[in-house]
Amino acid sequence: MFTIELIPAERLDTVLPLLQLLNPNLHEDVIAERLSDVRKTDYRCVGVFNDKKLIAISGLWILNKIYAGKHIEPDNVIVHPDYRSKGIGELLLNWIHQYATEQGCLTSELNSRISNDAGNKFWKKMGYEIVGYHFIKPLTTDIETTNSCLASSHS
């Protein structure tokens, strides 16, 4: 039996193993530090549980932009490899879309790596359209910080 719920800020550390799977090029300390930083913002995280085991997550940002209006942005979406191709991603995204509607969001937008063929196929199946490019520019000469910035995955 799968359940979906928002993960309270005080339990966000439970998502670290999935974030490490999603971001293998980032040191676990970097992931933990960034997760700690987002706790101070309006960041939310939703999890899918199989009984009590966390098997999928998505970060959630509710933003308001001129071109998109109030919208939700799923971020760092991952389903544990043992549970892929079982409808968990679709279940999670349907929950997110319903939650967004309840929050008054008009749209959902996200970032996905160009090389993420399976992910991009999934996003298209879920009704997302490619409408532009996502650019990133490192603002530091610290090679470790720059590399972790460029290696970081957005689902």
Question: What does this protein look like?
Answer:
This protein has 155 residues and is of the alpha+beta class. Helices cover 33% and strands 25% of the residues. The protein has five helices and five strands; from the N terminus they run βααβββαβαα. Strands 1-2-3-4-5 form a five-stranded mixed beta sheet. β3 and β4 form a beta hairpin. The chain is globular, with a radius of gyration of 15 Å. The two termini are 25 Å apart.
Quick summary:
With about 160 residues, the protein is α+β, with helices and mostly antiparallel strands. The chain contains five helices and five strands, in the order βααβββαβαα.
Structure summary, number of beta strands = 5
* Bulk shape: globular
The separation of the N and C termini measures: 25 Å
Give the low-confidence spans: none
- Main beta sheet: strand number and arrangement? 5 strands, mixed
Q: What oligomeric arrangement do these chains adopt?
A: single chain
The residue fraction in helices comes out at: 25-40%
Strand content: 15-25%
Return Rg in Å. 15 Å
The average pLDDT value, as a whole number, equals: 91
Order of helices and strands: EHHEEEHEHH
The helix tally amounts to 5
Structural class: alpha+beta
Strand order of the largest sheet: 1-2-3-4-5
